[in-house]
Amino acid sequence: MGEARKDALRLDFDGRMKLEFHGTKVTSDAGLLTYRELDEALGLTTIIAPDLRDIRTGKNTQHGLTALLRQSIYSRLAGYDDTNDAERLAVDPAMRHVAGGRAVERSVASTSVMSRFETEILTQPKNLELLMNLVGEWVDRVHQRKSLKQIILDMDSSVSPTYGNQEGRWN
Questions:
Q1: Please, how many CA atoms are within 13 Å of residue 34, restricted to the half-sphere of its CB?
Q2: Where in the chain does DSSP place strands (E)?
Q3: Are 46 and 66 in contact (CB under 8 A)?
Q4: How buried is residue 148: exposed, middle or buried, by Cβ count under 10 Å (0-12/13-18/19+)?
Q5: Number of C-beta neighbours around residue 7 at 10 A
Q6: Which of the two residues, 22 and 152, has the higher pLDDT score?
Q7: β partners of residue 12
Q8: Which of 95, 102, 11, 104 is nearest to 65 (CA)?
Q9: Residues 34, 51: Cα–Cα separation, whole Å
Q10: Is the pLDDT of residue 81 over 90?
Q11: 85-135 pLDDT, tens per residue?
């Protein structure tokens, strides 16, 4: 008989976007939309963005720091180890929407822009300090919404060989 038609799923972080199946418009990174939805609900990337120090000069900056930070984070979540894939991701519909800003209508940042962002802007001492504290702030945000009832420690029992006189090594 065929499938029953369902309404498209709307996302809270961008109400213009709806999730539907269309075979011709494909992204392999649609799972990033779930991360972005969590980001929006908890304000994970917006808590750091106002405090990031922008050392760029000139008026020709196309992407804000929040969009660049999101592109950096979400590309790592998608399994891209470095900025080499930024050119290919520049037109990916999922990456454009999770980065936000001007990227939604155009494209995300290029490889060279992302490389400068990660090696020059994020490495500024003040920005590094903000990044080091970010994970703790994220955990605090989650705990504000849902209290901690238990902690589960998952101990890995696998053996990892070490060399030299490392503290705690097994002989």
A1: 5
A2: 9-10, 18-19
A3: yes
A4: exposed
A5: 7
A6: 152
A7: none
A8: 102
A9: 25
A10: no
A11: 888 888 888 888 888 888 888 888 888 888 999 999 999 999 999 999 988
Alpha-carbon torsion, ordered 99, 102, 106, 107, to 10 deg: -30
Burial of 154 (0-12, 13-18, 19+ CB in 10 A): exposed
DSSP code of residue 7: P
Q: What percent of the chain has pLDDT over 90?
A: 14
Instruction: Say which residue the tokens 């900056």 belong to.
Output: 61
Q: CA 35, 43, 70 angle in degrees (round to 5)?
A: 55
Q: How many CA atoms lie within 13 A of 33 on its CB side?
A: 18
Quote the pTM value.
0.69
DSSP state of 123: T
Under DSSP, is residue 26 helix (H, G, I), strand (E, B) or coil? coil
Report how far Cα 69 is from the mean position of its chain's Cα atoms.
Answer: 7
